[in-house]
């Protein structure tokens, strides 16, 4: 017969494993998109002189900072410091929103440089950039929703030193999104 503790541990492991499966699936989708990008570079209409705007570098720094603040929130709740946890979670949310703003500013810089994502003036290069970043933003919006749920649950006092599962799952997903963006940024920057 299984004890309540054993059942809770199995449930926790199951939830983490499901999240891992989801994250690996998402990564495979982006691997496919970046592979298609690599194959498309041999097209005659490919832009070889396209340079990523600085806003994407800024957004990369912001998203990395948000990963650090989410980690600090997780460490704070494990120490039982609820006010520090609140501060770090709200700062993570602000940085997440700052990332989204920087992404849209980057899109604006691309358009002002004369590159369009759709329509007759678009190119395959900018269309790929648009698709990959838009899909990542859709995942980030999911991450923001997860973060809002974590913040809500934190303020409802569902997390404490011994119960951090929801916050840990949220942090895992957030860190995954950050790593994914760094991969995409480095890919587009160096390729």
TrEMBL record:
Q: Which residue ranges run through the membrane?
A: 18-39, 51-73, 85-107, 127-153, 165-190
Task: Tell me which residues make up the Heme-copper oxidase subunit III family profile domain.
Answer: 1-191
Cellular compartment(s):
Cell membrane; Membrane
Do the record's keywords include Membrane?
yes
Q: Which domain of life is it from?
A: Bacteria
Annotated InterPro entries: Cyt_c/ubiquinol_Oxase_su3, Cyt_c_oxidase-like_su3, Cyt_c_oxidase_su3-like_sf, Cyt_c_oxidase_su3_a-hlx
Membrane topology is:
Multi-pass membrane protein
Does this UniProt record's set of keywords contain Membrane?
Answer: yes
GO CC annotations, alphabetized: plasma membrane
Matching Pfam families = COX3
Q: Which UniProt keywords apply?
A: Membrane, Transmembrane, Transmembrane helix
One GO biological process term: aerobic electron transport chain
Q: Name one GO molecular function term.
A: cytochrome-c oxidase activity
Q: Which PANTHER family match?
A: CYTOCHROME C OXIDASE, CYTOCHROME C OXIDASE SUBUNIT III
Q: Which family does it belong to?
A: Belongs to the cytochrome c oxidase subunit 3 family.
Q: Report the protein name in the record.
A: Cytochrome oxidase subunit III
Question: What does UniProt list as this organism's lineage?
Answer: Bacteria, Pseudomonadati, Bacteroidota, Flavobacteriia, Flavobacteriales
């Amino acid at each position: 017969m299984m004890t309540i503790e054993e059942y809770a541990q199995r449930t926790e492991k199951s939830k983490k494993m499901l999240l891992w499966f989801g994250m690996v699936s998402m990564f495979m989708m982006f691997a496919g998109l970046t592979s298609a990008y690599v194959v498309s570079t041999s097209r005659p209409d490919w832009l070889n002189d396209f340079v990523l705007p600085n806003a994407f570098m800024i957004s990369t720094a912001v998203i990395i900072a948000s990963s650090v603040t989410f980690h600090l929130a997780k460490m704070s709740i494990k120490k039982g410091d609820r006010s520090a946890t609140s501060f770090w979670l709200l700062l993570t949310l602000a940085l997440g929103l700052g990332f989204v703003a920087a992404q849209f500013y980057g899109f604006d810089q691309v358009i002002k440089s004369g590159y369009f994502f759709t329509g007759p003036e678009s190119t395959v290069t900018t269309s790929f950039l648009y698709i990959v970043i838009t899909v990542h933003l859709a995942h980030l919006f999911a991450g923001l929703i997860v973060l809002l749920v974590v913040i809500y649950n934190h303020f409802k006092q569902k997390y404490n030193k011994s119960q951090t599962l929801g916050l840990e799952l949220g942090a895992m997903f957030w860190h995954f999104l950050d790593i994914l963006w760094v991969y995409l940024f480095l890919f587009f920057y160096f390729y």
